[in-house]
Amino acid sequence: MSDFNRRKILKSSAGLAAASIGVGSAIFAPLAGAQTMTFKPEKGAKLRVLRWSRFVQGDIDAYMVNVKRFSDATGIEVRVDNEGWEDVRPKAAVAANTGAGPDIILSTNDDANLYPDKLLDVTDVAEYLGKKYGGWYPAAELFMRPDGKKWIGLPLGASGSLIVYRQSLVKAAGFDTFPKTNDDFLKLYKALKEKGTPGGMALGNATGDSTWTNWLIWSFGGKLVDKNNKVVIDSPETLKALEYAKELYANFIPGTLSWLDPNNNKAFLDGQIAVTNNGISVYYAAKNSPDPKVKEMAADINHAVFPVGPVGVPTESHLFFNQMAMKYTKYPNAAKEFLRFMMERPQFDDWLQGAGGYVAQPLRAYEANPIWTSDPKNTPYRDSVKNLRPAGYEGKLGYASAGAAADFIIPNMVAEAASGSKTPKEAAERAQKRAERYYKV
Q1: CA distance 158 to 429
Q2: Is 133 within 8 Å of 36 (Cβ atoms)?
Q3: Structural domains in the chain?
Q4: What is the value of pTM for the model shown?
Q5: Helices of type H across 173-291
Q6: Which one is predicted more confidently, 160 or 34?
Q7: pLDDT exceeding 90 applies to what percent of the chain?
């Protein structure tokens, strides 16, 4: 994260007041750095929210409790629709282009950059929350404020893409601790396959779980674009990463080329694999399973960050979540008030805990939430946004980065090379051409 412009961290107030509703438009309290802010909702306002479906039941349960709190406090009816990640993106694009649909959309990565002129300016809300809650992490700010000025949406957080593994099976393969280098990571995968307890990671168009392919390329020093947004994916560093991918894939359980986000969860909980990458949802599901055998597995599950490759620094890639208020909404004040209310400490703290650590916070003050320390196995996920490297690394975020990510260029390249359907050079050349269609000179 050293390449990012880090804003000075502001101290959050010791006395964070609960949200108050309905007093004028964008009214600030006169004391102590704007500790309260409200927007007066339009008369007769109703809101419709489209968000991604839960992988953790506690996420949606806690979210809906907060929605009810908002409705009870304001009298505003809020309808919440849930769709899969792959379905939210096209529906959001249709809504943006037709000017009709949900008032607020919760989507992934930098999808907001696909239609920034269709989104409500929420700079006032973002700056208020940042000042009150210790500042936004640099990556969160980059996603939602790509021009460094206007906020086109609010960060919601990120689902960490970390290593999920069975401690007993990793130990049986000869490793007392989880590998910290790419070389040892490969040795572990080979040993697990020999023991008949293989690992596997998604190589299909999985919105969340294919993010491991970014780690892979970056860990060898490869990148899609340079600082000037010039496409440079066809490079010696990328080719070394793809050769490594071939060796790693040879030890995967069969079928990972078609895996989407639910597949590795199921394979892990079914006992088919010993290692994968995922959010905390696998562990959450095991702990809360009605099946005694699956629940027993929870004690054997642990988490680790991805190993460090030849580049010599961590290269973390996680699934980022955004909140977009659409410019066409008839109720912009109500939409802003909803976003503000949901991000305030009483609601956001409860949601973080309800989701069981599935989403990591975008605001620094929420690092102190007890969900991250109540169970040591949750702690590795706490810093997912803090350590996040955006998929558009190391270029500027915008339409091109959003389009390239949505087109799964990096996951497809890795899948082609790993499976042998193309040579590493052929796969890199194809990725280069595909990316250049987005990053036009």
Answers
A1: 31
A2: no
A3: 41-159+318-381 (3.40.190.10), 162-317+396-438 (3.40.190.10)
A4: 0.89
A5: 182-194, 212-219, 236-249, 261-269, 281-287
A6: 160
A7: 89
